[in-house]
Amino acid sequence: MAALIPFDQRDGVIWFDGKIVNWKDAKIHVLTHGLHYGSCVFEGERAYDGVIFKSREHSIRLHKSAEIMDFTIPYSLDELDAAKAKVVELNGGGDQYVRPVAWRGSEMMAVAAQHSTIHVAIATWGWPSMFDPETKMKGIKLDIADYRRPDPVCAPVHAKAAGLYMICTISKHRAEKKGYADAMMLDWQGRVAECTGANIFFIKDGVLHTPIADCFLNGLTRQSVLEIAKKEGIEVIERRIMPEELSSFNECFIVGSAAEVTPVAEVGPYRFTPGNMSRVLMDAYSSAVRPKKKAA
Hints:
This protein is of the alpha+beta class. It has two domains: 9-126, 2-Layer Sandwich (D-amino Acid Aminotransferase, Chain A, domain 1); 133-289, D-amino Acid Aminotransferase, Chain A, domain 2 (Alpha-Beta Barrel), CATH 3.20.10. It is built from seven helices and 16 strands. The chain has helices at residues 33-37, 55-68, 77-90, 133-136, 166-177, 220-231, 276-289; strands at 13-16, 19-22, 40-42, 45-48, 51-52, 96-104, 118-126, 140-149, 182-187, 192-195, 199-204, 207-211, 236-239, 251-256, 260-267, 270-271. The strands form two sheets. Strands 8, 9, 10, 11, 12, 13, 14, 15 and 16 form a nine-stranded mixed beta sheet that branches. Strands 1, 2, 3, 4, 5, 6 and 7 form a seven-stranded antiparallel beta sheet that branches. Strand 11 and strand 12 (207-211) form a beta hairpin. Helix 2 packs across helix 3. The longest helix has 14 residues, at 55-68. The N and C termini lie far apart (42 Å).
């Protein structure tokens, strides 16, 4: 396996506060509020054949996340969309991961930081699908995390904010040490919520079930899969799901910008057999994200 190139040592360009800079020159100071206090929001997007899927929706969510975190992104939706497209182009086009990020700067080093400058950067890098379709259809294995998604009155759960991922990192590390690919998290009341960086779906008797996204992020991939399912004539039920119900489901899959649509074979002690409906939704999503080619 080739050695991983650290992300601060890669080649290419990054959009940083309105300017294109060399990748290795995109730096911040160690005394940055976003680093110390988690005042940072971001997006995870994908470009397919050089075109970002749902770029505008991601830019809107970045703005909304910042508002929830009590700061304002100093660039318009049009400016963000144009900047993302430019960086994808300059970094070679094709299939790329796209990471816009916004954070409070270094003017104030305390909990309160109303007068800090808001910085924005956009990086992209080559990232093909994590698995080929046949490997995906074998299904991945999930642990059940110890940490739970917080009560909405205790955290800004509808922002894609850096601090909310602290327990996700811990949970994924613990899962990987035990041989799992990821971990499924429960909410603060012990109900099924999501994975550490993806939403989760279950299938029973031809019906799609997924948790209500009221204490975790209603992912844009989740929304896309719900739209696709309805177009395919698949009944969708968004509801509370208790972990002991997992034994009654036939299939399971996770969705996210990185994971796309990935079938699941195990969640802790529960077993699933990736089947036709998972494949239909996986293939339909793969088709939906690719820019449509114009007829000659």
